[in-house]
Write a structure and sequence with these properties.
Length: 259
């Protein structure tokens, strides 16, 4: 399989999806919003974008299965090739006209990530990588930061709507990061958080209770940029294990201990 050619085609699909999202944002109103749950919103833009992406991916790989956020196509668990698609990561941001929000597409081949594409719509930034490649942003090679002390690190955080209590020490961790690092940021798009760590804007990122489509596009990009990408125990179950750490290698061990 020509992973590079496949990745370049996916970049074009993501760009087209981003252009559609941008056009819809011009006339979008809150009346177009549906609620999947408390603070969990979706719109026709998410669904239409997903259908557009899946239609184009089918042309590239007719044999592939899919794992998608909006469920516009039946999920496949047994195909050797599986596309993992988040058509609009950061829906709440999109609804409020707030950056960032992203198109995120990853490809699994026999449970290995082999293509990753994240397109940040507002800045028109295309992040991408394929198996064996470097990581790229708009054609330029990117790498993680060289920050080697937690006190100098800028930390990206994310949390699910249910994680605002302190039963698991969550609030204590946030206070620690704020007091002992260069600061914390919550952007509202895990795909953006991961690729921003890949290019050194963040030094590390952590999030609980994510779904595969939140991380599949960005995880390969981050790894190819030199990041450590693991679950909370340091293992590799970050895609389906609903917990992820993305960090440059210099502060990874200390950051993992704090997480």
């Amino acid at each position: 399989m020509d992973y590079k050619a496949l990745c370049m085609s996916v970049c074009e699909i993501a760009r087209e999806a981003g252009e559609y999202i941008t056009r819809q944002r011009e006339t979008f109103t809150f009346a177009d919003v549906e609620f999947k749950g408390t603070q969990n919103m979706v719109s026709y833009v998410d669904k239409q974008t997903e259908m557009m992406i899946v239609s184009r991916l089918r042309e590239l790989t007719p044999e592939a299965g899919y794992i998608t956020e909006e469920g516009t196509i039946e999920a496949s668990e047994d195909a050797s090739l599986r596309w993992i698609v988040d058509p609009l990561d950061g829906t709440t941001n999109f609804i409020h006209g707030l950056a960032p929000y992203c198109v995120s597409i990853g490809l699994l081949e026999d449970d290995e990530l082999v293509v990753g594409v994240v397109y940040e719509v507002n800045l028109r930034e295309m992040f991408y990588a394929w198996k064996g490649s470097a990581a790229y942003l708009n054609g330029r090679e990117i790498t993680v930061s060289k920050t080697d002390r937690m006190e100098n690190a800028l930390i990206g955080i994310g949390f699910p709507y249910s994680a605002l209590g302190n039963e698991d020490g969550f609030i204590d961790k946030m206070v620690y990061y704020q007091l002992h690092t260069n600061g914390v940021r919550r952007l509202g798009s895990a795909a953006a958080d991961i690729v921003y760590t890949a290019c050194g804007r963040f030094d590390a990122f952590t999030h609980l209770k994510l779904s595969p489509w939140d991380v599949a596009g960005g995880a390969l990009i981050a790894m190819q940029a030199g990041a450590r990408v693991t679950d909370y125990s340091g293992g590799d179950n970050f895609l389906f294990g609903r917990e992820i750490i993305v960090s440059n290698p210099y502060i990874y061990e200390e950051f993992k201990q704090r997480v």
